[in-house]
Amino acid sequence: MSTAIVTGAAKGIGRGIAAAFATAGWSVVLVDRDAAPLAETAKGLGANVATLTGDVAERKTNDAAVRLATEKFGRIDAVVGNAGVTLPKLIDETSGDEFDRLFAINVKALMYLAQAAHRALAQTRGSLTVIASKTGLVAQRNSPIYVATKGAAVQLARALALDWATEGIRVNAVCPGIVDTPMLKEFIDAMPDPAASRREHEAAQPLGRLATPAECAAAVLFLSSPAASFITGVALPVDGGFTAE
Length: 245
Ligand SMILES: NC(=O)c1ccc[n+]([C@@H]2O[C@H](COP(=O)([O-])OP(=O)(O)OC[C@H]3O[C@@H](n4cnc5c(N)ncnc54)[C@H](O)[C@@H]3O)[C@@H](O)[C@H]2O)c1
Hints:
alpha/beta; Rossmann fold; seven-stranded parallel sheet; 8 helices; 7 strands; 15% strand; binds nicotinamide-adenine-dinucleotide
């Protein structure tokens, strides 16, 4: 049975990714710092699910996730670095500590995850998928450090795709547009008029609506599957056409 590790699986896109893998018959190891909603995600996904509570910005969490997957399920075929946080602040309002914390969660955690899973992925000729953002491809206003972390995530995926190609490990980025999740609510609630901001976000998408976590998860499942066996180093927008303009 194929096995996936999904970080940030307690809510939003990560919860959708966990459900997509489990529905497709994969075993899943779910990682998040938030224990109660993580247990909620695991409920109903069947017997082949394990959870780990921890901060992905710490190396030990990523090492423990790989150990858990190997011990419990015997192999790792796909690793998904999804955990992430936003920072809706202009640059003049941003402290050095906030910058460091954002890069630790959105970028450094991907390095720890990749390092922890490298050998196991080489054994299965598996894949790593990072959840970046359309803001890794085009910029947006009001969150410059978040945008910078997502640009870094896209380039990390491309660079690792090259470095790991000879080992048969594929590495890709999924670049969601605006997805209806708790993170989006946090971002919109920080705006002066949240209701107007939500309407603006919907109207700004060529498809005229926000994405669902399941729509992002479908792209991750595809990139993790044998159907994508010759796809590596791509940054796949799942953005309703936003970056086509
Ligand atoms: N929602 C969007 O519109 C959107 C758009 C583009 C990209 N993304 C990206 O998708 C990913 C998921 O976003 P979401 O909208 O589902 O967010 P969310 O806030 O709804 O869920 C994120 C999950 O990650 C977990 N998490 C955060 N920091 C963590 C840490 N340090 N250690 C362990 N777990 C941690 C949270 O507890 C939460 O369960 C993020 O990387 C985000 O940047 C989201």
